[in-house]
Fold each of these.
Amino acid sequence: MTHAISPSVRLQVARLLDATPRSLAARIVRAINVATILFGVAGVVLISDSVYQTLEPLLIDVPLLMFAVEYLVRIWVAPETHTTHGSAARVRWRWITSACGLVDGLAVVCLPVAWLLGIDAVQADMFCILWIFKLARYSHGLAVLGRVIRLEAEPLLGVLFVFVMTLLCAAVLIYLLEGRAQPDTLGTVPKALWWTIVTLTTTGYGDVTPVTAGGRMLAGLVMMCGIVVFALWAGILSTGFSQEMRRRAFLKTWDLVAQVPLFHNLGATVISEIAQRLRPCEVAEDTVVLHKGDAGDCMYFIVSGEITIEAEGQTIRLHDGNFFGELSLITGARRSATAVATRTTQLLLLDIADFREMAARHPELTTSIHEEAKRRVRVGYPHRDTTPP
Amino acid sequence: MTHAISPSVRLQVARLLDATPRSLAARIVRAINVATILFGVAGVVLISDSVYQTLEPLLIDVPLLMFAVEYLVRIWVAPETHTTHGSAARVRWRWITSACGLVDGLAVVCLPVAWLLGIDAVQADMFCILWIFKLARYSHGLAVLGRVIRLEAEPLLGVLFVFVMTLLCAAVLIYLLEGRAQPDTLGTVPKALWWTIVTLTTTGYGDVTPVTAGGRMLAGLVMMCGIVVFALWAGILSTGFSQEMRRRAFLKTWDLVAQVPLFHNLGATVISEIAQRLRPCEVAEDTVVLHKGDAGDCMYFIVSGEITIEAEGQTIRLHDGNFFGELSLITGARRSATAVATRTTQLLLLDIADFREMAARHPELTTSIHEEAKRRVRVGYPHRDTTPP
Amino acid sequence: MTHAISPSVRLQVARLLDATPRSLAARIVRAINVATILFGVAGVVLISDSVYQTLEPLLIDVPLLMFAVEYLVRIWVAPETHTTHGSAARVRWRWITSACGLVDGLAVVCLPVAWLLGIDAVQADMFCILWIFKLARYSHGLAVLGRVIRLEAEPLLGVLFVFVMTLLCAAVLIYLLEGRAQPDTLGTVPKALWWTIVTLTTTGYGDVTPVTAGGRMLAGLVMMCGIVVFALWAGILSTGFSQEMRRRAFLKTWDLVAQVPLFHNLGATVISEIAQRLRPCEVAEDTVVLHKGDAGDCMYFIVSGEITIEAEGQTIRLHDGNFFGELSLITGARRSATAVATRTTQLLLLDIADFREMAARHPELTTSIHEEAKRRVRVGYPHRDTTPP
Amino acid sequence: MTHAISPSVRLQVARLLDATPRSLAARIVRAINVATILFGVAGVVLISDSVYQTLEPLLIDVPLLMFAVEYLVRIWVAPETHTTHGSAARVRWRWITSACGLVDGLAVVCLPVAWLLGIDAVQADMFCILWIFKLARYSHGLAVLGRVIRLEAEPLLGVLFVFVMTLLCAAVLIYLLEGRAQPDTLGTVPKALWWTIVTLTTTGYGDVTPVTAGGRMLAGLVMMCGIVVFALWAGILSTGFSQEMRRRAFLKTWDLVAQVPLFHNLGATVISEIAQRLRPCEVAEDTVVLHKGDAGDCMYFIVSGEITIEAEGQTIRLHDGNFFGELSLITGARRSATAVATRTTQLLLLDIADFREMAARHPELTTSIHEEAKRRVRVGYPHRDTTPP
């Protein structure tokens, strides 16, 4: 691991460990990593059962060893994945203290620390459930959820306050109403809190139920309040979540739109509008994108990759920046050819409903598509590209 | 079943089996099909009870036979319903491997296969519950739901990940907190998972409840997390579902708008906007669409069919492309005539609120309606069509 | 009840029975009607308890008698409230067969019919719970809900189909998995359906719970499916409900906007937009609408009624079509006067956030308000109207 | 407390008690106040347990004394915080009868009144749970919730009516179906109401469950109705809540936008649009706003405070009205400098997705930002302000 050879090797390794891999090798590394985490978590779940405790070295120690190696490798390659200027040591320290670095670090040290603290072996193993957080690296959803909770902190706290207020008032009231009837289960306010939260969340275990008329009326009210509180919470979170997902999709599409020459001729307003309606989709090699004879409900723009159109014995190849499938949207006819991706291809999909709305509001879009199609036929392309479907 | 006669007969049969039938015969065929499925499913439910097991030949074998015949007929008529080019055999194979074909095929082979595998007769009959999927052919909702789940796969999986993470962490924690107090029900993590999922979904059977203070605090937290997770799930699905239904409605309306000549004079922007506000509705023969003397809260455009206006002894017939009911929207007066559909009629309904907004934003729409009304009176129509209500 | 006197008396009575009363007498009649219904429904609830069964003549028979009288009176006045042309008898028949008429009729005949059928007295009284539907006349919410369910019937049925499909498949599966372990509670599919619906709705009584590992996994899945199904249902209904309420509000505001002269000078587009932002509110006599010294967060337009402005010893009266409170929105200062309603007054409220957006998008609105204010001062008004707050 | 000295001292004290404090002393006073409330509420919860009843003087009497002092002080300073004209006594009376005043008053008198009424000491202490309402002063969420419930009263009542109707009808039906099978728990309608509300809210304690086939079918229906009713309630509340929060954010941003000179050059329409997209955020002293080398996903406008830009050895100070971070949005490059807040700074954040949409729709915004940046370099600033990141 001398400095003379490490940078290029380090870069190779860094690319293998990327969370959104492009090469086959990186995909395999990711698959192994995810499989190890799942195997490890399954081990944690099983280890608590005395039947499986003899398997501990396999179930817990093997994943732990792999995570330790992964952690050291990730520290080593940190300078390649983080563009912060400064010495390699400073960059590494920044990665160690980042969210990803802390999770990876905790995953490694949790068990040794538990042993050092003298915790019973089976209980110590339980700390390895933290391994599941390592999967967060591959989940966009979790990142979005975190951002939403941060952005909507104020209303969420407001509703939490309403929740706690209802909880405490209801607990005191049920204690006053039922405390003497059921001293064992509702005889103090802390005991009453258990009944209150079980009722307020409409879980309703049934281990404690009010028996007096007053207590039952209060219970009815508490159930209704619970629904209201959680409705507010749900409303805030789901609105924020869907806005944030839309924002992410817009940014992703915007970057792809810039790679399609057709859109360069359109005004910025049209581009901004179309970027909100295009849907990115990646198709694997040999996927049939369009079937000849199907009804046409969308058109496609190629961002990168290659699409082969098979129509009446003729084979045409389309490349980055071309589009296809627009004929069916304009004429309403069925697909006149089959389109197959000849390698992994990044497409932008424009739905028929959106196409019609866009075409009605911005006639220049349709004109632009027509002209581009004509120009292609006139100029000619390598491999005689044109757009029959 | 010679080739000389089959194509025309085959086309007739294909039309009888259409999922959106137009003729009376096709409606009857569909009704029989749906009734058989419901009868068969009811049979499956009852057959598990020893009282009804003697009825098995009637409850199970009769529907099974009918489905087998239906399956063979559908294979035979496949070339008429699918426009894929190629030999009849290839088209048939494509239908057999389509979603509909697989469901129909499974519905037929499930029971014989279960018998071959030597499964006990009553248990084998249970596989016939798959028959209910045959109804999916007639349900738009299911198709939309499937599409939404496909489109929103990424956020749904993100939330699923949060759910599984919460589930596992909570199960391990409750095992640590309550494992010793309740070894029978929470003594291992897999056992604890049962309590955790019952609590996280706020189902709360009450067969396992925490008894320690720490366990109860954790339980309160788990209930709150559960609500949050499902709120996100609910938000994503219901937003996607309503967008998808709106998209379907827009496409349907768009096709109908093209059949009303009045709209040809308007600009594409107005058409696109009005298509989002018109609501398609089909009325059966002899339905009273407007009652004389009612308050007017909408106007109608006729896509196809016939409407008879009965006003002061005079009877006027309106046909495809005409409109009626606009007077009340403009003047605010009550309906001055009764309108009755004389045969099955496809209408487009424009609500008063939408009419006012459209009229304010696009005065040409109102002008167009006025001019059309005048032109009709001037030119005259067969049966003296005009638009009094 | 001769024909010579009835029409004018009939009209008076009809106005007394109006659901949205304007006169004090009509309000009293409505209050008595609502009180009788609530008293009667409370009677139905209590009568099942043997303690109260001696009170039956008071609790049940008195309201029943009143409803019978009300029913006959409503039949008599039907020609005044319904504008359908035709003989009085035909109009009355139409009212009797309308939704309101059927509910009122059922409320009267339910008990006698139950007696005739020889049903036990206490059980017969229970049918009087139908009286609660008489309240529907006064509830807009119910009418809106009915309309939403009719409009969104297709997606609601789609989701219902998914629900029934999940229900049946889950019931068959739990029967296969747990039928032998718990033959008493899950030994047939109909029995299993009870557990399935209790779990699918996350109610979770806990009277039946799965005990095998397979059954518990299925239960977890069923709980999650239940949430998804109801999320869709909830999403469809709440979206439709809020759209429908907004539509109603728009129609109500639109009618009121037409009564404010200021808006006549503005273009139709601005009116349509402002009608969506104005919020109608009715204030009772002697209500203080604005407090001197308060922060100004909205302005008001008077549709009908009278507002008195008290500023520095001077008292100014504003009438229909005037507006007030705009100064604070423009300057950001606190209210400079107190405004009191001197009789029941219908106002249109424009919120500060909406005012700013409207002012930014349509400068002619602010100009119009300024000019109107100046013109008033120049021309003068009876009682020296002007708009200091 | 002579009139000669009180006004200035009174103003100082009033500022210390402000709910949105600016000075450090005021923050400390608020923290003490909140801590006392939380301590007092915790005391109320614990006091019901016999173990802690000896601590009553500490847990209850100390907070009570502090609240009494606070109440008197707040009455004294009322003329400083309320701008109503009139004598000090009148202003004080108005504060005492305001929502805040009533809550503070109740918090003080609840316990003495309970003692006077001769209520048992422990039960009397329970009334102190009202202290939690004192926290409402600091919670925006609660104020918003109250406003939403007032604004949406009509649809909420409509749904409440549907809920009560379903509840009563279901209770009567279950009484008819199960009353004879389970006379102890469902033998009268009031008893049946308990089962109905527990089922309608899907709480499902399981203490009463139907046993007949008819009762179980009804139960399934009631569970489904419950979900529908609460879905409507949830939908109304969460829509209203999010609208109201957006409205608040718009007003807050609008006031801040007016303090940024850049926006003065833009048209009112652009300002109104941008005010809806800017997000206010306050950063504490020494917060790192931008890290050199990070990806750029937003730009900032400074409303008040100071930001120090550290780039290549050079240190630049930015003040009120400046902006920074726009370069990364335009070029897509990573941050070229680190930005640190040198004192508490109020910023407006414009997200990259919003920046792109705004730039596409209103090219004058981008032009304006470019010109401002150029002008700054040309004219020069104290401390050589410019905007490298």
Amino acid sequence: MNLTILGCYAATPRSLTNPTSQVLEIKNHMFLIDCGEGTQVQLRKHKIKFSRINHIFISHLHGDHFFGLPGLISTFRLLGRDKEMHIYGPKGIKEAITLLLKLGDSWTNYLLIFHELSSKESELVYEDDKVTIETIPLNHRVYTNGFLFKEKLGERKLNIDAVSKLNIDKAYYHNIKKGKNIFLDDGREIKNELLTFDPPAPKSYAFCSDTTYKPNIIPLIKNVDALYHESTFLESEEHLTERTKHATAKQAATIAKDANVKKLILGHYSTRYKSIELFKEEARTVFANVELADDGKVFAL
Amino acid sequence: MNLTILGCYAATPRSLTNPTSQVLEIKNHMFLIDCGEGTQVQLRKHKIKFSRINHIFISHLHGDHFFGLPGLISTFRLLGRDKEMHIYGPKGIKEAITLLLKLGDSWTNYLLIFHELSSKESELVYEDDKVTIETIPLNHRVYTNGFLFKEKLGERKLNIDAVSKLNIDKAYYHNIKKGKNIFLDDGREIKNELLTFDPPAPKSYAFCSDTTYKPNIIPLIKNVDALYHESTFLESEEHLTERTKHATAKQAATIAKDANVKKLILGHYSTRYKSIELFKEEARTVFANVELADDGKVFAL
């Protein structure tokens, strides 16, 4: 599981910093999360193949999380895309994109499938045999969801020594990896746990931006391997969080600690601060394993 | 009159090239022409003060000329703008911007005034005491206008030697500069042309992108000081111009020659070509004074 940060700064794009967008590579998927202005250029810079993106998740309809999407959709068309594209985002996203395509008479040659979200409860929005994706309802100035990406428990790993010693035919490996016991030619039943090891623990990643400090997301994100939580402010600007519906680095760390996550990644920094290191210092007073997102940074999770 | 090219490449933004946007500085105005994705970052890079932009002209509603506008409007709000902003563009532009602001619940604190265009004839869209701006109807896949910026003829220049010799009181200078004759104390009438020189010739600039070769714009842009004309293709791809409604470098040069313009600036290059110098070479076979637009280039006109 790899996370590439394309942009992680609040508000306006600047010469050297980009608004929110990131790519999560998980089980051969490339999921694009948020799409601020300039995302398509960031994708090119970081050599991410456009054709590998088939699912885009938009947290909310503020410009710094969403104004790169119309251009990216148009670019997919110019690149000759024909595979369908799934877009998950707040109700209204379909109307906005459709209007822009209509005004430019620039309909896509590929199918755009919108999954509009409006529930205030967490819901499963994607599932295949290897991954699930659920929404994490957040508290921001407009309707906003985070997203929880979870690998499913994989197949059991074959204990090669054990199956060799028992001369088990390869034809049975498939069932063994599924967890089944098998019967030898002499009629003996061999328990699966003697033939296999536990599969690797499935990984999970939670993206939570933008939001105030919202402790009731904790049950949803409990024990995740990595939590990206917005930290627009430091505690010195905590008084701004209520009006703007953002969080501080310390609040993000408190969520991380109470949810017992393995790693906290901070981002969505207000550009008022001279150094983003301050966010890490503040968060570390509450929670040890803190990392700072930055544009272009890749986290191997 | 200065023209700053913020972006001049066709289709998608890339790491090192930007879609169409330019700033024309004329008589203390900063007019923004087109606003592809990334325009606000280009404005920052080239240190153009956001607050000096009060009028934005959008040629057509294709993404590479327009998808930077929602973000720019939002950034003006974040910067605390309170002056009104005038936006000139095809019918539909108001609906698009309004919908995006509504979905983000991000209404501007300043007044956005839309001047929606739908006429197929050239029309005067802006006038003050120093400048006029008219549309140049173009021929593209969607409704498109170029824009013709013209300085008005200024005041006549005082012939200091002449007025001194005649001991004319400074109180009369205002009327003299307006072109009036004056009467000396002894009753003699002095013709204005003995007291003044002609004012400098007013400058003019025509922006024509995107369009096919369209000779009927020639009367509108006759004798302009500078013509920016799109040249998406070279003649070798002339067969693509009819379907895509774009022009070649040679066609742009033919328009320049037939309109007797002083300088032709080429732009809106397809990214299929290895070098933009090829556009200049081709255009120069028809018209001598050709320059190439490029991102970041400033033309003092």
